[in-house]
Specification:
single chain, mainly alpha, about 70% helix
């Protein structure tokens, strides 16, 4: 069987079409990954802005003042937990990475969760779905903190009180902690 010029050209152009198709699929996948990354960052920035603006600032400030006055389970604390339940849901569903959440909100989640751990566990006895996303996320955030040689997940009562003192002074636009300065109770 003789190979003709037509057969050679057909094979050549078929190969070009195949390579072009493979390249197009790779390029499309890269574009989708880039879009997903951009979307993830946008979700994170939107959540951070919500946390630093009204009404969250008021919830944070009022809750802090009540917790410093030893009021148990103020309704504003539920608003804060609900916010972080939403953040946890987005992380659990892959819209945010755990590292994003740790970096942006870990300084807030750790003390809030530590302060509310008992009441969350009690609520979950009645309704296992209560804060289920947050309960799943916190151990993963703790693992990241350990891997980064952090100690934010290990909080004393003084650390939690220092957190609430910081929150009592929060204002609109006050940035989140971002794992740079631990919450410390003032020295007496």
């Amino acid at each position: 069987m003789k190979t003709t010029l037509t057969d050679v050209l057909t094979t050549f152009f078929t190969a070009i079409i195949a390579v072009t198709g493979i390249w197009a699929a790779f390029y499309a996948r890269q574009q989708i990954n880039d879009f997903h990354e951009e979307s993830r960052i946008q979700h994170l920035l939107t959540l951070q802005q919500q946390y630093e603006q009204e009404p969250m600032v008021t919830y944070r400030k009022v809750c802090a003042k009540k917790r410093l006055a030893h009021v148990e389970d103020p309704p504003e604390e539920e608003q804060m937990l609900n916010f972080f339940e939403t953040v946890a849901l987005l992380a659990n569903e892959g819209y945010l990475t755990d590292k994003d959440v740790w970096e942006t909100f870990g300084s807030e989640i750790f003390p809030l969760y530590a302060d509310d751990r008992d009441s969350i566990e009690q609520d979950r006895k009645e309704d296992p779905a209560e804060y289920s996303n947050l309960v799943l996320l916190v151990p993963r955030l703790e693992a990241i903190d350990v891997a980064q040689h952090g100690t934010e997940y290990k909080l004393s009562k003084e650390d939690i009180e220092g957190y609430w003192e910081d929150e009592a002074n929060v204002g609109v636009g006050t940035p989140t902690g971002h794992h740079k300065t631990p919450h410390q109770a003032p020295k007496k």
